[in-house]
TrEMBL record:
This is Uncharacterized protein. Residues 134-300 form the MAM domain. It comes from Potamilus streckersoni. Transmembrane segments: none annotated. GO terms for cellular component: membrane. The keyword Signal applies. The keyword Disulfide bond applies. Gene3D superfamilies: 2.60.120.200, Complement Module, domain 1. It comes from the Eukaryota. Keywords: Disulfide bond, Signal, Sushi.
Amino acid sequence: MNYLTAILIFNAWSGYESAYSCPLDFVIQHGQYNVTTNGYILLFGCDKGFFLYGLRSAVCFGTVWSNPPPKCITNGCPKVESAGAISVEANYEGSQLSFRCAAGFELIGNDSIHCNGSHWSAPIPKCVEKRGNLSCDFETKDLCGWSHDPEGDFDWTWETGTTPTQGTGPSYDHTLGPNGQGHYLFIETSAPNKNGYQAILKSPFYMADQSGQCFSFWYHSYGSGFLSKLEVFVWKEGEKKEDLTPRFTLDYVTGREWQNENFYIPLQNEPFKIMFVGTRLKGHKHDIAIDDVSLGPCPVITRLCVNVQHVSKWEEDRTRSL
Ligand SMILES: *[C@@H]1O[C@H](CO)[C@@H](O)[C@H](O)[C@H]1NC(C)=O
Ligand SMILES: *[C@@H]1O[C@H](CO)[C@@H](O)[C@H](O)[C@H]1NC(C)=O
Ligand SMILES: *[C@@H]1O[C@H](CO)[C@@H](O)[C@H](O)[C@H]1NC(C)=O
Ligand SMILES: *[C@@H]1O[C@H](CO)[C@@H](O)[C@H](O)[C@H]1NC(C)=O
Ligand SMILES: [Ca+2]
């Protein structure tokens, strides 16, 4: 017994007939429909040469149809092929297309279009890169879209409380503080990591129109000696880390407090990422940590807040971009 038969039996048994008043105010281009059972059921059909795209029937529930009428579609529309981030699946001999985007991209427009013989039902959709979260406190394991670069020798560790080695690293995160059980990321400088090993963390893509602002982050650099290094870069697709100049470098101990830093990102003409590179230089007593990153308007009184070396770099870029 199919769905339709079941409904007919239910209908006969319950005596609902008089209650059907679903609207019959639509036309099906290149097709027709027949009204049956006093307006309770519609049966759809398409003209010769057209495919029926959708359901073959509809049932009236009081005043609304169970589903929209199908479309009668055929081929003959301009060809659309997969290219770049967009992939196309053709059905009904090319009369209907479904679209998907590669990871990291989102679809703008309809994910499904169909053809009436000459025109597509909607413009061809586009895949655009997803916009990265503007800030992250690293409180969830998805790291707000930040990711470990497989080119690194090891990954940044997601941690709460102290780091495993005594005398180095933070005792708590920056977001929630001493009693908060918050999370941060750090580079584990103990074995098995070796001297020269790097951990690379990349932000999601930011769009070019999100440049011209400041990137702010908190870091924690406690341990003994000059043992590890933190570098922060602005990176674009295809660029090699070796060819880039870090926008921030730290290779010394600053103490047990979290420190804030920010730098200006000059206007870019293509999507970019922020890249944190942590390098173990010598020994296991310098676990550098980061937390609370954000991209946004530059602080007004930068001069008073950050050390002189970085103010000059910030001002230099700013002046150049004005
Ligand atoms: C509608 O009824 C007509 C006349 O009986 C028939 O030729 C046609 O095939 C029917 N269409 C559908 C979709 O059932
Ligand atoms: C997708 O297409 C349907 C009709 O096929 C239309 O009603 C709808 O507005 C379209 N959506 C977008 C986002 O273009
Ligand atoms: C297909 O749709 C376009 C625009 O909606 C319309 O101008 C054209 O007449 C339609 N063609 C057919 C064969 O229905
Ligand atoms: C932004 O962060 C939220 C929460 O962590 C996450 O669910 C979402 O996927 C992120 N967006 C992107 C584009 O990565
Ligand atoms: Ca945190």
